[in-house]
Amino acid sequence: MDLPIIMSCDKQTRVLKNDYAKKLDEFGLPDPKLISEDQKIDNLTTWPPVTLGQIFQYILNKREFDTEYIGKYKDQKAYSYFDSGFVGEILTNKTGPFIILLCNVRASKSINEEKDLWVATQPDGKVLTAWCSCMAGASGCCNHIIATLYKVEYANSQGFCSSACTSIPCGWNKSTKTIIEPKKIADIVVRKKLRSKQATSSNREEVRMAELNKFDPREKLQQNMTNERLTLLLNGIQKSI
């Protein structure tokens, strides 16, 4: 009987290190993780002119997606990371013929956890390779990486990366990351943004989510809890003890 072979932690670590080294060797790229803080630049004019087409080309080269993904990219998780303010400040470094983007993105399951990543591009905006500290980051195409590229593309589309631009909002690079505060479950509004053409032509999803937010599993008689009914309930509990 053929059983799956489970690698030990040490072996998995060695495999990941080898894959990382191959990623760098493929393009002759110095390790971006070794870039010191004083070599990182906070200047939007140094950002590469990444376009949506270049992002999609990179995604399709790395993942087995069909064209439907491209048509509904704003409904995907990666775009929601950018749109929801998960992407932090992006810094750059010019390393030889490469422009390195360095960023941290909030993890989806913990508001206090961030994933470090880097993206290597050509000066014309072509995305070459990338890495992220998340579980899927070794693939070079996780949601954190793609969300970062969406931020770069957005800045370019708004003209923020042009040296002639004088209308860049003050502190925009840092301000795209929102502050999330803990809330009670009862105060959380569950919603799902649908931005594709199919979604904008109908509000059925919005209606469905609104109904879910109003859902109360209790019977109608129990939903309106008056002081009198509460007293009866407490008395009944005390008698049963």
Task: Give a written overview of the molecule.
This protein is α+β, with helices and mostly antiparallel strands and 241 residues long. It has a domain at 9-158. It is built from ten helices and four strands, in the order H-H-H-H-E-E-E-E-H-H-H-H-H-H. A four-stranded antiparallel β-sheet has the order 1-2-3-4, sandwiched between helices. The chain starts with 8 loop residues before the first helix and ends with a helix.
Give short descriptive properties of this protein.
241 residues, alpha+beta, 4-stranded antiparallel β-sheet, 10 helices, Znf_SWIM, zinc ion binding
What's the quick description here?
GO terms for molecular function: zinc ion binding. The protein has 241 residues and is α+β, with helices and mostly antiparallel strands.
Tell me the major beta sheet.
4 strands, antiparallel
Strand content: 5-15%
Terminal Cα span: 58 Å
Q: Give unreliable regions as ranges.
A: none
- What best-fitting shape do the alpha-carbon axes yield? elongated
Structure classification: alpha+beta
Tally the beta strands: 4
Read across the widest sheet, the strand sequence of neighbours is 1-2-3-4
Number of helices: 10
Alpha carbon gyration radius = 24 Å
Mean pLDDT over the residues? 82
State the helical fraction.
25-40%
Q: From N to C, what is the helix and strand string? A: HHHHEEEEHHHHHH
GO molecular function: zinc ion binding
InterPro entries: Znf_SWIM
